[in-house]
Structures are given as C-alpha cells and as structure tokens.
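Input record (one chain):
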Amino acid sequence: MADLTGARWRKSTRSGSNGGNCVEVADNLPGVVAVRDSKDRDGGTLAFQSDAWRRFVAGVVAD
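The corresponding structure, as predicted from the sequence alone:
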C-alpha cells in the first residue's frame, strides 16, 4: 500500500458544489497517484503508479 501521508487532494475544477459524483486526486506524491470518492473519503483509496495514471488520462482524452 502506498504511503499517502502528505497527500494533497483536489477535485476537478468542473466539479459542482452540489455534491455530485466526483473523485479527488492526489498527484503530489513521488511515483504514485491516489484517487478517492469525494463523497466517501474514508471509503478507500486507489493508488496507481504515476506512469500508469498518465497513460490512463491520455487514453481518456484521446477517446
């Protein structure tokens, strides 16, 4: 499990303030990008290697 101490979580600037379905991302950790549900912050976290996350985002943007 990745050490998430010091994670700085952020939501998309396109997220509304009405409690919609959003995720938060922490990409300030060395070699790891963490993702969690903004409505259930204690419900669990996914951790990805930074290069895998970049490939995922590039694929989403390209499609």
